[in-house]
Amino acid sequence: MVDPAHTDGKLILRWLWGGYLRRFLGLIFAALFLMGIEGSMMGALSYTIGPMFDELFVARNRAALPWIAGAIFAVFVLRALSGFGQRVLMAKVGQRLTADLQSDMVRHMLGLDLAWFQKTPPGNLIERVRGDTNALATLWSNILAAAGRDVIATLSLFAVALSVDWLWTVIALAGVPLLVLPITRLQDWVRGMARQARSSAATISTRLDEIFHGVPTIRLNRMEARENRRFDEALDGFVDASIRSEAGRAAIPALMDVIAGLGFLGVVVYGGLQIMDGTKTVGQFMSFFTAMALVFEPLRRIDNVSGAWQTALASLERLYAVFLERPTILSPAQPATLPAPAGALDIVVRDVQLGYDETPVLNGLTLTAKAGQMTALVGASGAGKTTVFSLLTRLIEPQSGTVTLGDVPIETLALDDLRSQFSVVSQEALLFDETLRDNILLGRTDVSEDQLNAVLDAAHITDFLPGLPNGLDSPAGPRGTNLSGGQRQRVAIARALLRDAPILLLDEATSALDAKSERVVQEALERLSKGRTTLVIAHRLATVRDADLIIVMDKGRVVEQGTHEALLAQGGVYSGLYQLQFASDS
Length: 586
Hints:
The chain is α/β, with parallel strands linked by helices.
């Protein structure tokens, strides 16, 4: 995975602007215009303070009362309307930005290699899709508001201050250069802590994902205290990093307040003497004082932008790092075509070497699955049987060797075309938290009720439908928890029947079932296998004794192959496995 800490901030900003923010250019400009009006009202308010004191409170000029009062009221009305408008527009930009980022990220992730998902915990991915994008949108709105409203407010207030007395302004700002170095250091600190906080948030999501999906295991193994401790440790890391980040951000306006205090001290002493001498009026001083008092609030927000930007950049780095990932398993530019329907073609694996990192899985594997026949893969756990299925569907790629379908290398076929040739029924049928109907159709809209009913009958789903509260429209629950293991397997078989692919891959499809459920599921599988090239992975050898060819695997290679009777007669590995199972069953 790309390290987010090694990405360039300017490059990320260009990516965010060109890929997302540019499409909201009209809304952003409209919001900035309204922010400009809102910010300029701060200068207008401080400017009216001068005549209010000089004309009303000192000179007691009644004729000036209507226009001064009206001007102040108009300032507040304009500020209210412009503030409301820009906040609505920025909320729209922020929400659309979040939605677009999340949609694009999920679409991008779904195209990445399986190996990438195996190295990245689900909680980490969830946090990137949800947490990082939401944090970015919120912070971006604040940053843009500071860049628009607060910059205009600052300029207008400085204009008022300068119009009163430029020397007073210089005195008030004399200490500002002292802030440059500490603020730069604090920005680096905030960015580092924000990155650590986002990483800790991903760890928290991972822990929650493991806890909620492992509640039965946690309870049966009395692991509650252990899981609570691990979760508390992740929380402590997040809280510590968040507090450090906020402390760094809070230090920036605190430093500004100290410098502002020194500036005001100088102005009060110097300006107070001028008022006493009669060279300046009370109204001028109050107008200047109001402008300088108000200017430090938008200045603080602008300075906070640096901290907020470092926090946003930490999230952006993590998002951008995902988009930098690229799949290595792709369709060829000019895909080949199969010479005949896939069900009529032999599958050949020839001298395949494959491993994960430094761990070898397949060592020179060579095998052939004849078209229209059932080929069984048996052997001890870790022999590489399931890896063969991933190899055939190009979920993984071999380091060397070839896999062909009808003498056509599978890497020369379009991925969609290749995978459309296979139906897979595995030991753990993954169901979505949707209705039973949705889990069978999987988004297809071209299935008639007659077709669906035929599939339900063939997969023996109609046997248990009457016991469900809403029949086919009953919710399956998270990961199918509302159904038994046998019922989930029948749903998986119904999917495969509806898919009607010419090649069937069965991976321990009945191993976790009781005898009654296994009998029903096995019958459904036999119907499904008819007329198809079928590859079966099985630990229970009794379920594959009728296979046309049984291939015995050990340590990633074929050690024996033949029919059930022939392998028993050889007295080799298969015979030993069979005798062991037979003895344990009896």
